Each structure stands twice: as structure tokens, then as C-alpha cells.
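thought: user wants a sequence for this fold. calling inverse folding tool.
action: design(structure=
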């Protein structure tokens, strides 16, 4: 499913002196583990979290942290299979309208209280009624009601059948007696929350009463250190202030000392030049197609990641094996003459100027913008690159839809096709590119309602075809993921979605 080539022993370089920080009990600032301590692991991340509450968290990077704090009724494994978690078993009605869960006995929240059927009902209804959060939360709008059958059995009844809904139950179960989860996050995952210093770090510690002995944490303390200077990541790794960094830019690999193991996988996302379909000139499909014909994803991959990555032609990445359509990446093979012809037909014979807003926290996306800028210049189109802070990107671009174009990677919040495709229906709250197609809406609705797996798969593929034909965005690639882990630790595992399971990491023997 994913390439997991293990690369060891990168060249040691003489590094500049890196500032070190003292480890404080409640987690102010960063830390250094240069002395060999394995009771604490420092994980570097380029983004601050947007919320510790799973019902309001939106960004994928936040969900990666929350994956360690909260457990859902089910939990994914490294192959994408859903495994029992808070629920020990479940059944689904033949039409996919009722999901019946048997709750595991002995599961405790981090505050020592037992997880009850009332907590499960409360959590699901809270997600259903939430007005914020990403697609994982918005999916719960489909829940009609939750019935407590008895102390260990809960039925979730959907307003309309959906045989794909099980994957959404990965979302965290939370206690009914805690009001403000952002300030006081209480889950039942392998790690419990200790503290948070905005723009600095999030500190977790091992939860000793975790329900699953096999999935329990091995490392006592975890510090997610926020590193906004993406140019210094390699040096911070080798200097000892970071033990683990995922999605290391390929250009910084040679800065990492041979004290680290480099794992290679994929990011499990769809990177694209996302275009606001409701603003000129991108409200014209011919303009969108012209840009697609001008851009060569292979050149981007050569520049950004040494030729590595997987081209994509629609809103689906390779880990979704039965849905992924590699042939769509050839829909707009680079053809500059065709691009110029389409621009002329649309009334832009002399080109036009637009702005690509991109998060300053994502060097791979910035580098992608640089290649796009050069490629579009060949057809007379000027692309100005505007780097903005991640929180501004979330509020202005993603939520406010106040942009012309952006480069970002969209991930799956759940292991099902709707998590990648539902956002492009006309009325979806997270349809930030304002794509609107009655053909797409109708096809998606049929796919969502289908109960035959083969029919459902074919309809979702038709949705992907429409996105490609309409050139909703200029699709580029699923980026490679380079993960650096200090050799004092081992056990890193890739997942087919945005997840960082720190509980699998343990001290090396």
C-alpha cells in the first residue's frame, strides 16, 4: 500500500551551534535530548494546533496530535483496516442505516472515570450538533439519533443509509461531564494531556490505565515542539532539540546526522493548485484547463522531492487502492499550445495575473509554487506567490474562501471515499474552492446511497472523473514523506491517513 523503504546512515555534517532549551515540567519552550534520555521524545511540527477539542479541530496536523489523546469506537491499523477500540464489536444493518456497537468494559478516561454508554451517546450527538470542525465532524450531520440499548450497547441511527459510515467512528469519545475540552482535554487514548504553550509546544504523558496493553505507550513523555523556522529543521534534529520529525523536506535530508534513521513513505494527501471556482478567471473551465495543460507535475516532483512522489489526477491518493485512478494523471499532459489556445478562447490571449496564497509552514508547497510560477510564465500567465501564516491560511483561505488560488495538500479524515469527495458537493461547508456541478452532486448522491459495493465504487470513480474533466483544481501529486527518528528510538509506523501514533515508538534496544 505504501513504500516503506528504510534509509540508514545519512552523512554527518558539521553543524552550527543550535540553541538548546531546558525541559520544564509543564512544558514551556523546547528541549534537548542530546544526553540520551529515552523517557521523553520531542516531536517537531511546523504548525500550532487549532484546538484540543476533536469537535472543533480542523487541521490535519492537529488531528495527528489528537490521535494520541482520544480513542474512537474504532481505530485504524497501519493497513487501513478498522479495528475495535472503545467498541469491542459492532454490526451494521443490511441497508447501512443502523450501526450497533458493543462497548468494551473497563475503558477509562484520563480523569479516572469510566467510559459509559451515556458518554458515547453524548459524544456522537455533540459532533452532530457542532457548527465547527472538519469533514470528520461534519459527517455526523447524517446521524438522526442515538439509542442506548443498555449499559454496553449503543445504536446509531442515520437519517439515510450509508454503508461507508463506520470509518467516521474513529473520532474521539469524550466525557459528558467535561465542558471545555479545548482547555481541559480528557480522552481515553494512550497519552493524556499535560499542558500547552501556544506557538511553543503541546506536552503529553503516558496514560497508565490505557485499556489496550498491546497498544499502550512505551515513552513516558511526549513534547510536540512547534518549529516555525522550516529552514532549520535539519539542524535542530542533528543538534538534539528534536527527536522525531515527519514530512522532512527532501532538500534538508543531507543536513541530518547519522544519529537518525530516515523512513520513507507517502504523505497520503492530494497536493494541487486549488482554484477558487467562483472568482474570475477561474470561473471559466477553459482557464482552469489551460493552467493544467501548462503545468508538468513531474517537473514539480523533480524539484521538490528529487523526483519522488506519485502523480494524481483527481481528489484521491494511492492508499485508497480500489478508488484510485492513476490514469487520470494523464488527463492534462503538458501541452503549451493547447494551453494558449484555451486561454485565447476564454478571452485571455495575453494572459493574466493572479496570486497564489500558500502557508509559510509548508516548504514543499512553497517550492511547488515556485515551479508553477515558472511553468505558467511560458503561457503568459503571471503567478504571484504570497506566503501567509498557517492560522491566516485557515481563516482567510480555507474558512473565509477569500483567495484566488492556493497550493496545499488535502487529506482524508476517515478511511472512506466520502472523506475525499464529499467536500466538492455544491452545498458542502468545506467546499472551499466553490466547485459547483449538478452532475457531480447527482453522482455523489447516488454513490453515497448505494449499498452494492461494486456499484458504489464505480460511482465514486465517476465523481473523480468529473473533477478531472471539469478541472476543479490542477492536481499534482501525493508527496513523499521523509521521517527522521533519532536512533535512540525505534518503532515508527506509517498509516494510510494523517496519523502519528506515538504509542508505537519505543526505546531502541
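)
observation: tool returned 509 residues.
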Amino acid at each position: 500500500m505504501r513504500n516503506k523503504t528504510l534509509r540508514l546512515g545519512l552523512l554527518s555534517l558539521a553543524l552550527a551551534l543550535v540553541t538548546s532549551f531546558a525541559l520544564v515540567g509543564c512544558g514551556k519552550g523546547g528541549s534537548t535530548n542530546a544526553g540520551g534520555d529515552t523517557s521523553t521524545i520531542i516531536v517537531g511540527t511546523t504548525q500550532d494546533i487549532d484546538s484540543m477539542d476533536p469537535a472543533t479541530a480542523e487541521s490535519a496536523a492537529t488531528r495527528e496530535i489528537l490521535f494520541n489523546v482520544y480513542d474512537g469506537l474504532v481505530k485504524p491499523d497501519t493497513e487501513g483496516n478498522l479495528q475495535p477500540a472503545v467498541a469491542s464489536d459492532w454490526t451494521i444493518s443490511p441497508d447501512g442505516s443502523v450501526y450497533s456497537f458493543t462497548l468494551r468494559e473497563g475503558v477509562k478516561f484520563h480523569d479516572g472515570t469510566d467510559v459509559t454508554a451515556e458518554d458515547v451517546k453524548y459524544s456522537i450527538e455533540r459532533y452532530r450538533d457542532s457548527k465547527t470542525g472538519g469533514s470528520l465532524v461534519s459527517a455526523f450531520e447524517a446521524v438522526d439519533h442515538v439509542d442506548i440499548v443498555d449499559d454496553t450497547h449503543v445504536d446509531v441511527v442515520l437519517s439515510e443509509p450509508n454503508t461507508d459510515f463506520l470509518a467516521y467512528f474513529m473520532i474521539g469519545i469524550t466525557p459528558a461531564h467535561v465542558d471545555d475540552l479545548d482547555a481541559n482535554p480528557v480522552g481515553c487514548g494512550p497519552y493524556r494531556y499535560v499542558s500547552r504553550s501556544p506557538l511553543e509546544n503541546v506536552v503529553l504523558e503516558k496514560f497508565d490505565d490505557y485499556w489496550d496493553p498491546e497498544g499502550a505507550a512505551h515513552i513516558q513523555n511526549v513534547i510536540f515542539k512547534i518549529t516555525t523556522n522550516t529552514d532549520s529543521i535539519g539542524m535542530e534534529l542533528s543538534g538534539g532539540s528534536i527527536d522525531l520529525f515527519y514530512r522532512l523536506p527532501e532538500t534538508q535530508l543531507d543536513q541530518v546526522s547519522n544519529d537518525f534513521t530516515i523512513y520513507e513513505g507517502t504523505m497520503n494527501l492530494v497536493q494541487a493548485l486549488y482554484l477558487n471556482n467562483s472568482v474570475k478567471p477561474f470561473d471559466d473551465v477553459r482557464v482552469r484547463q489551460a493552467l493544467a495543460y501548462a503545468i508538468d507535475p513531474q517537473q514539480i516532483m523533480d524539484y521538490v522531492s528529487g523526483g519522488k512522489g506519485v502523480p494524481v489526477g483527481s481528489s484521491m491518493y494511492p492508499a485508497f487502492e480500489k478508488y484510485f485512478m492513476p490514469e487520470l494523471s494523464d488527463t492534462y499532459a503538458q501541452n503549451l499550445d493547447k494551453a494558449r489556445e484555451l486561454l485565447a478562447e476564454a478571452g485571455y490571449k495575453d494572459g493574466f495575473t493572479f496570486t497564489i496564497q500558500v502557508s509559510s509552514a509548508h516548504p514543499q508547497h512553497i517550492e511547488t509554487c515556485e515551479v508553477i510560477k515558472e511553468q505558467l510564465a511560458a503561457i503568459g500567465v503571471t503567478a504571484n506567490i504570497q506566503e501567509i501564516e498557517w492560522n491566516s491560511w485557515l481563516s482567510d483561505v480555507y474558512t473565509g474562501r477569500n483567495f484566488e488560488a492556493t497550493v496545499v495538500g488535502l487529506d482524508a479524515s476517515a478511511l472512506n471515499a466520502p472523506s475525499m469527495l464529499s467536500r466538492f458537493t455544491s452545498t458542502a461547508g468545506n467546499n472551499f474552492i466553490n466547485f459547483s456541478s449538478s452532475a457531480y452532486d447527482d453522482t455523489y448522491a447516488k454513490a453515497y446511497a448505494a449499498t452494492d459495493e461494486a456499484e458504489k465504487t464505480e460511482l465514486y470513480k465517476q465523481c473523480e472523473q468529473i473533477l478531472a474533466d471539469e478541472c476543479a483544481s490542477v492536481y499534482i501529486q501525493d508527496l513523499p514523506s521523509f521521517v527522521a527518528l533519532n536512533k535512540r528510538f525505534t518503532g515508527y509506523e506509517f498509516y494510510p491517513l494523517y496519523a502519528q501514533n506515538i504509542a508505537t515508538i519505543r526505546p531502541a534496544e
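thought: summarizing for user.
answer: Here is the designed sequence. The first helix runs from residue 60 to 66.
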